[in-house]
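Office hours follow-up: a student asked to see two folded examples consecutively, so here they are.
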Amino acid sequence: MLARVCQVARERGLVPSVMTFEPHPREYFATLNQRPELAPTRVSGLRDKLAALARYGVSQVVVERFNARLAEMSANAFIENLLVQGLQTKWLLVGEDFRFGHKRSGDIDLLREAGMRHGFEVQTLADVTDQQGHRISSSEVRTALAVGDLDRARHLLGHPFHISGHVIHGQKLGRTLGYPTMNLRVAERCAARSGIYVVQVYGLADQPLPAVASLGVRPTVEDRGRVLLESHLLNDTLNAYGKLVRVEFLHKLRDEEKFPDLPSLTAAIAEDARNARAYFAVHGL
């Protein structure tokens, strides 16, 4: 879809643009109806989403706040206010099942009728499938990440799953245990399954650095339920506070566990580090 948008933009001298919503409309309605379990998990945070769009050649991203105003906006107002007046749209590409406006009242036919009046062309893109004929979708990616199937997630995404962010200060417990970590905040409802992973870290050196990481709520040492990504560099000790890094997930070692005491936790971390080193000994960076 992005390749097609960028191609047409080059041919017609237009600006390749993407409109996205924050939060996800399903997340908004789940919160509104007090049904948080219905909110979709997040495959990527806004920073990673914008970076990915830039890599694929998109020049302009409109992040539209999905709130009551937008939820109640009629389909015709959506076209008039956002597409015509806001973006001055000349060519529009949407999925074949695209719906918009209050109670999803707008469809492709309405878009095409409006395009004839306002001078923009509408095209649709059919479902994209893999070599086995399976539909590639965000739901499939979420399912793969929820069960820790990183190979499947990589296949669907076209690249390894990753989380980026600025390194923050933590409780320094890892340093006390002999395994200092870099801590990243994780977006709420992260799609990835909590657990211990082999990862590589970008942003601290010319090459990615091998590491082992814990994604989860740290049940052995706190009970606040806040999800954190803690990465321990296997071969380096660096002052990374405040730096923007990208942690790329390569292999899942085990699920997150709650240990009875800190010595048990330390022994488990040591075993995880050994297993991560064994992974890199075989696969490299």
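And the second, which I mentioned at the end of office hours:
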Amino acid sequence: MSSDSKTKIFLEFQFAMILISGNILFAKLIDESVWMITFGRTVFASAGLYLFLKWRDKPLFFPSAIENKAALGGGILLAIHWVLFFASARLASPAIAVLTLFTHPVITVFIEPLYYPVKPKGRDVLLALLVLLGVGILIPELKAGNDLHWGIIAGLISALSFSFRNLLTKKFLSHHGSAQVMCLQSFAAVFVLAPVCYFETIPTSVKSLGLIFLLGSFFTAFAHTLYVKSMFQLKLKTAGILSSIQPVYSILLAWLLLGDIPGYREMIGGALILVAGTLETIRFGKEE
């Protein structure tokens, strides 16, 4: 891989991370249930991606049944990830939701051998544990049974589903276009979440609909398609550890846009996560 290609992939990945980091802001900006927010974002994301595929004259479905099943499974995991991610933000806080989610690099390092004939290297384990330490510092003392406790659990399950979705997607679908992959997974998420409409009131306010449209089209369809494209060109553990910078982006965005000033825990934990991401970035430049 040439130096220019590495730079392009790295910049695309980091831009995707900045956009995805903005997702958490909508947990506070949209006054709807996490179920309806997630359903709405998948509707707008899948519709936008479908129109894009039609414009490019690309098919929606893949040629083999196993690939379509993998996309369906990935879409279900994506729906679980999104619902629990926003639930974590509501139960605990946006910062806790983002930071518990980013145990997923640790999870990826240890479950990747289930999908690929690779063994975790000592360096990968150390970087993953550094990320975990950073996340641990960011989480204050908690008591079992309260909202913070359940928010952290929701965030950890969100991280687990996100890791399995990434592995499943890369193993079976990495030779296809990222927009097609994301479109089919978004459609799968729509059908999984459709029963929400029977139990929740569909938003009618211009503000809610506008924000959900922005979340679904730009911060989901575009951002996640760019993320999937970059992920296909990286090793999964590399993508996982590089994406550990996202909590730092999220905290900065919350600080700048919502006035949530980070405390000393966020500063120290974010610094450790940033160190791990920087070390992996240097390794990526040398070895990928």
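Two things to take away from it. The chain has a mean pLDDT of 82. The chain has 14 helices and no strands.
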